[in-house]
Amino acid sequence: MHVEIRMLCTFEERRKAQRLFYEAYIEEMGRYLGKADHENKLYTPELFENFRIFGAIDDTGELHGLIVILVGTDAPMPEDYIEDYELSRFQDLISPEKFAFTEYLVIRRTSRGTSVGMKLMSAVVRYVFENDIPMLFVDSEPHLVKHYFRLGLRSHYEPYFEEQFGLICPIVFFPDIDYLKQMRSPFADLPGAPHKTSAQIKQLVQICESSRPLVGIKETLTEAEWSEICEQAQSTNAHQVSIFSDMNEEQVDALMKDCTVVTCYRDLPIFAKGQKGTRSIAFLLSGRVKVLDAAGKVIAIRQNGDVLGETAALMETEQPNTLIAMEDDTRLLFLGQQTLNQMLRHDSEVASRFFHNLSRLICSNALSTTNEPQFTPQGDL
C-alpha cells in the first residue's frame, strides 16, 4: 500500500483526522466520550488547533494513520506538562520552546501491522532532526514501550496514571546518533540525522540517566538487572503457581524479551475500575497490590507471582476493579495482546503451557478474592 506522509493543514484534512480519531479512541476503545460530536462522529478537542498533525494518505485521499505533536514554537507549553514531567530539570540547557511532545499515534484498524506507523514516526523524527529539536517526549502504554525502546527512545521519568489510558510510561527521543546506532534504530539512517552526538544532547541524556531505570526491556537493562527480573518472573505465588511453570529456559526467554518491566511507587493506580481499551496483562514481580471494589473496599491483596488485569485484557471489556500499588518499588511485567496473539499463531506448545499456567493464576486470584485476604497488614491499606 502506497501512502504519502504529509502535514495535515487544510480544513478537510483535519476533519478526516478528527473522524479517524473518533473511530479509534471513541468507537473502538470507548475513550474521550465527553469530547466528541457523536452525531457527526468527530473528535472535538481544542488541542487540534495548536498541534501539528502528520497524516498517512493514500492515492484516493483516505487517511490511514496520524501522529499529533505539540512544538514549543507553535504555542506556549502547558503548565501541567512542565510540572508533571519536571521539565525544570532540563531548562538550564534548553528553553521551553525547544520541547516537542507527541500526543497521539493513531492507525486505522485495517492498516495496523503495515508500515504506516513506522512511516509516521520516521516523519516526526525527520522533523526533529531538521528543526534542531533536542527532546521529543512521548507517552506510552506499557505494552508499546518495547517498540519505542527498540527505535532508540528511552525512559525519562516515573510512570503515572492517566484517566483515559491507565498506566503511562513517559519516554523521550534524543537526536543521539551514537545511541541510535547502538540500538540499530532505523532512525539513524534518516536524512538529516546528525553525524555525531552533541555535547548538549549528552548532558540531557545524563540528566535522564542519573536515576535508575523505572521502565525497561531486555535490551536496555544490564545483564544483572535482567537476570534479577527473570528470576522474579519465575517465582511462584502464594498458591505455588508461576506463569512460566513447565517452560524451559529458551521458552521463558522468548516470552520475556517481548515484555516491559515497570516499577511503580506506592499509591499509584495500575488499573482502574471501568477503564477501557486495556491491551495488556501484568505479572507482579515484587511488592504488593491491593484490589478495590466499586465502594473502595479492599477485597484482595495481590503478591509476588500473581496476575493483574487479566479479565479486561482477555475479555476485551472494562476493568472490573481498581488495582493500586501498596509499596514503592512495586515491579510489574507487562505482556501485550499482540505478543499473546503471535504466540498462539506461531508456537502452540508455549501457548498451551502459558495459558494453562494463566488459567491456574486466574483461579488463584478468584480464591484470594472470594475468601478473606490472607495477608499480614504492613502499614495503611
Q: Which helices and strands appear, and what pairs or packs with what?
A:
Blueprint: E1 4-7, H1 11-28, E2 36-37, E3 42-43, E4 52-57, E5 63-71, H2 79-84, E6 99-107, H3 116-130, E7 135-140, H4 145-150, E8 154-155, E9 160-162, E10 166-173, H5 177-182, H6 199-209, E11 215-216, H7 223-233, H8 249-256, E12 260-264, E13 269-271, E14 280-286, E15 289-292, E16 298-302, E17 307-308, H9 310-315, E18 322-325, E19 330-336, H10 337-346, H11 348-370
Parallel strand pairs: 6-7
Antiparallel strand pairs: 1-4, 2-3, 4-5, 5-6, 7-10, 8-10, 9-10, 11-12, 12-19, 13-18, 14-17, 14-19, 15-16, 15-18
Helix pairs in contact: 10-11
* Helical content class: 25-40%
* Average of the residue pLDDT scores: 88
Number of helices: 11
Given as residue ranges, the uncertain stretches (5+ residues, pLDDT < 50) are 371-378
What is the CATH class designation of the largest domain? Alpha Beta
Given the helix and strand composition, which structural class is it?
alpha+beta
**Distance between the first and last residues' Cα:** 53 Å
- Write out the CATH superfamily name of the largest domain: Gcn5-related N-acetyltransferase (GNAT)
Domain unit count: 2
Give the overall silhouette: globular
What is the CATH third-level topology name of the largest domain? Aminopeptidase
In CATH, the architecture of the largest domain is 3-Layer(aba) Sandwich
Order of helices and strands: EHEEEEHEHEHEEEHHEHHEEEEEEHEEHH
